[in-house]
Structures are given as C-alpha cells and as structure tokens.
Write a structure and sequence with these properties.
The chain has a single domain (2-247), classed as Glycerol-3-phosphate (1)-acyltransferase (3-Layer(aba) Sandwich), CATH 3.40.1130. It has helices at residues 2-33, 37-59, 89-97, 116-122, 134-149, 174-182, 224-242, and strands at residues 61-66, 80-83, 102-107, 126-128, 153-156, 186-191, 207-213. The two termini are 28 Å apart. The radius of gyration is 18 Å and the shape is globular. Helix 2 packs across helix 3 (89-97). The chain has a seven-stranded mixed sheet, sandwiched between helices. It is of the alpha/beta class. It has seven helices and seven strands; from the N terminus they run H-H-E-E-H-E-H-E-H-E-H-E-E-H. The longest helix is centred in the N-terminal third of the chain and has 32 residues, at 2-33.
Length: 248
Amino acid sequence: MNRVINFVRAVLHTALLAVTVVPWALAAVLLRVLGQEKWCYAVCLNWLRLSVKSGTAILGIHNRVTGWENLPVGKTDAAILLVKHQSLWETFSMIALMPHPLAYVFKKELLRIPFFGWAIGSLDMIHIDRKQGTQAFNKVVEQGKRLLDKGTWVIMFPEGTRTARGQQGVYKTGGTRLAIETGAPVVPVAVTSARCWPRKAFIKTPGIVDISIGKPIPSAGREPAELMREVEAWIEAEMRRLDPEAYK
C-alpha cells in the first residue's frame, strides 16, 4: 500500500513540475532577453523553492540542515560549495536554501533540455564543453572569478555524477583547482538525499534528508589533489555519520 501511495505522490509532484516549468522557463528567457538578470534569477529561485516545498508537501521529503554557522557571512565573501551528489533533490534544494545566489558549473548538454535547459541557460552560470579540456577549465576560472567577486557562490559536485546510496564516486579536482586559482575557500557539504530520492528513481520515500555544511577550508598555498582529499575525507566521514545504515 505504501508503495502505491508513494507512486501516486511521485506522479502528482512530477505533474506539478511539468506544468509549472513551461511558464517559468519562458519568463526566465524573456527576462534575460530584456536584460533583467536580477529578476531572471528571482523567477528561477521561486520555481526551485516551489519544487522543494511541493516535494515536502506532496512527497513528504523534509530537509534538515546543520552547520549554517559555517557559511561565510559577508555580502561579498566568496565560497565554493563542494557537495555530495545522490539525486536531483540537492540540485533544487541547495539553490533554494542558500543565503547567496549560486552558480552551478554544468555540462553544456543540459542546455538542450526543453524549457528546463533554456531556463538555466538564461542564468549567469558556468556551462562548459568537456571536450575542450584546458580551455574549458580556463573558462570556469574566468567566469568563476567574476561571479565570486560580485557575491555569487559557485557550486560543484566533485564526484561529477550522482552516486547510489552508500557508494562513493571518484572526487575530481576541478573544484579545488578553481578555489586555488580564485583564492576562495571551499565549503564541503554532505547530503543524504538517496534515503528518500534514490538515483534515477521515480518513486520517492517520505523522510528526512540531512544536509550538513562543513567548515570552510582555506585554499591558499594548497595543492588541488591534496585539498580535494581533505574535502573527500570530511564528506565521506560525515555521510557515514549521517546515514550509517547505508555503509554497513
């Protein structure tokens, strides 16, 4: 019975997102064309908050955030968030929860997704062509510096893709390389979203998603691989503390 109820909940939530994404995306694109960057971000932020709030109301998924005190407090204080990636839930939740505007670093293929891709393409974020190698990273650094200087935090998933509950991906050094190039600290974030929204799953399970924000780690004088090892060690240890059943 619970599975049937959760299936119905998933259908309702998906339908809500599908219906609302069209006017949202069109509004975002129009505002971008008109040069209204601030309002474009606000429209997108409100849709993402709707996605999270409706996920709580319909799916029964609740965020429990700890470590707020670890976030930089200055209006233009820089931060690069390096986040554990288990599902689509944290993609929506992080931007909806954070006190600063966020800019994702994402592959340009996402821009081809109808409506959703058009909307994120209208935002001031960093989309890259991975085939360009060094040139792509130079673009990340150039745009990252500009965004960080104006108080926008950069967010990256160091594992590169979603991992299954209880699994650990390969942590790539793109985020720490960017931090070292820009002088920004990295903030590790552990997320247990797969407890409720497993990777590639349609049916979700009601429950609590823990989002744990670690202390900022300075990047000055560090090496990318060594800094990423510290980030990885904190995130993975925190994941095991937050979700011990997954790592038995």
